[in-house]
Amino acid sequence: MKYIEQLQEKLSNAQKDYQPMKKNIETKVVKWLWANFCIYALEPFYFEEVRLHKGRIHKKEPSKKEYQYQYGLDVNNEIIIERQFTGLEEQFYETFYIRENNKIERYKYDYYYEKKIITVSLFIYENSILISSYRVFKDGWEIFTYLYENGKLSSKLMQCIYQKKEETDRFFSYSYDKIGLLQSIREGEYVLYNKPDKKITYTKLTELVSEKLFVLLRQTISNYKIDEKLYCIFFYYFHEDILPPFIGFGTQSKREEWQNEKGDEAKWKIWSPADYSHSYKIQLDEETQNLFNLYNQETSLSNKENSTIKMLVECCKKLKESIHEFDLNRTDDFVIIASDYEQGDLKKNFKLINPEIFDKFQNKLV
């Protein structure tokens, strides 16, 4: 536990250490790279486990930096800074890597201007092989222990405390095919990653998911009874796993409350599903969960996130056409919308779903 205690102390000091740490590490950068998504992780098989596709490096600095990644490399061509840009102008998450013999410290800061610390991590190596890692945050910590067979990662043990409560240990296993490539990652019986089945095309998979998603969204809206008057139904998603989306129901009573309290600034609440009094996490049966897991994995690995968002937008347009079939108490300006959790896609998707009223709403959106 000594590493956890040391990291907790570093976490408590990280806020005041931000500026000197930033200044010191930036002086060591000899080259900057830009990418359209994350290209680097210290955790073994990180991209496969969380079903994300590695980003592509840009040939030059992009003119539009929203949702782009910037990397600073040192003289050893190793990444020591990562900046993850948000949909808000010139605001980005910032991660610093401090590299020493047989260990790497990682500090991740929030994107707000005050740069609050999110996590502090430590990675321990023996003969260049990761044997353990530690991560601390405000209300807890995580410890990972890595085991190897024949030079390949075979298992990972995760121990953690969240909100000061000790959680059950988690055990992950890794298997490989006959030529030594990763075949699967499992946690017990649950499959986190499986090498894609090439017998089904991505186009066919998209068709299956689109049909299932539309039926699921209809059922959820029908089953979730709300007597209050609604000004919107908001399907929101996270870029890591877009499907299934969450559903937020914007009530007129809350909109009026925010307008009275905040005036023109109320739009930041009106289009923030995190602040809605009614929201719902779509429940999936095992078959649908497996289908969506496979689709999310293939979408991420193929870097086709825009295709998934387009599919969700098309589902919203179909729901809009059949909205009269639902027993909803709606305002005169009721809309169906879809966006990411940070509202970065809000205006673009709003215009696609509701083109006939976009001009009316344009200045009211974030």
Description:
By secondary structure, this protein is of the alpha+beta class. The chain is built from nine helices and 17 strands. The chain starts with a helix and ends in a 5-residue tail after the last helix. The strands form two sheets. Strands 1, 2, 3, 4, 5, 6, 7, 8, 9, 10, 11, 12 and 13 form a 13-stranded antiparallel sheet that branches. Strands 16-15-14-17 form a four-stranded mixed sheet. The model has no long low-confidence stretch (mean pLDDT 92).
Q: In angstroms, what is the radius of gyration?
A: 23 Å
Helix content: 25-40%
Structural class, by secondary structure, is: alpha+beta
Strand content: 25-35%
Major β-sheet annotation: 13 strands, antiparallel
Number of H- or I-type helical stretches: 9
- Order of secondary-structure elements: HEHEEEEEEEEEEEEHEEHHEHHEHH
Return the average pLDDT rounded to an integer: 92
Q: Uncertain regions: pLDDT < 50 for 5+ in a row?
A: none
How many strand units? 17
The outline comes out as globular
How far apart the termini lie comes to 45 Å
